[in-house]
Structure formats: C-alpha cells, structure tokens
Amino acid sequence: MSDVTIDGLSTNELVTVVELQRVELNRLLAEQRRLNDRIDKMLHMQEREQVLRQQTQVALDRLAEQKSLPGQVSAPPPQLVDRLNRTERKFNALQLAVGQLIDFIERRERNRNSTASAPDGVAPESPII
C-alpha cells in the first residue's frame, strides 16, 4: 500500500488533523448549546420581568383609583414605588447583560472568521464567560 500525501501531509498526519478538527467542532457545538441555553434563560427572565411590570402597573392603577377622591390625584405608596424602581433596575441590568452577550458573540465570530483566513490557521484562545 502506497503512502498518499495531500498538501504535503501523510495519511497519518491527515487522520490526526481530521481528528483534531472533529474534537474542536464538538467543543464549539457544546459551547454553542451552552450559550443558547443562557440566551433562552435570559429571554425567559425578560418575559417574566415584563409580566411582573405589567402586573405592578395594573396594581398601581387600581390603587390610585381606590385612593383618589374625585378630582384629586394621590401618589402610590412608597412600597410600590420602591418595588417598581427595583424592577426597573433589574430590567436595565438584564438588558445590558443581553447586549454584552450579543456583542461578545459577534466579536468572537468576527475573530473566528478573521483567524480562519490567517496564514498559520491558529486561532487565539477566547475567554469563556
């Protein structure tokens, strides 16, 4: 049996390259699944936050209707205002986190695409969040 070479690589070297690519592909697929799970959880949290915000607003409106006299507007109780402010801060933090995650994914993809065309074909390690 003759030793076939492709691009200067022997059969054994080609087998090694294919195996390394398979291992890397499996690792990347696992990371993608993990990232997708995190995105799903964040979206679920955002949906839940929106429902809670709507419920809070309805409760505030109902309370304002009960407390106000005709022609007079009353302020909501401090507890409700505090809860609404906390919810707003959590929403802003979640919104910021989702934006940072999307930026990180886009940068990582751009780095991958640029290193794939690099002459030595070696990609630098990216930090994992």
Number of strands: 0
Give the N-to-C terminal Cα separation.
49 Å
The mean pLDDT is 82
Radius of gyration over alpha carbons? 27 Å
Count of helices? Answer: 2
Please tell me about this protein's structure.
The structure is a single chain. It is built from two helices and no strands. By secondary structure, it is mainly α. The relative contact order is 0.07.
Keywords, please?
single chain, 129 residues, mainly alpha, 2 helices, rod-shaped
List the helices and strands and how they pair.
Elements: H1 11-67, H2 78-116
What's this entry about, in short?
Helix content is 74%, strand content 0%. It has 2 helices and no strands.
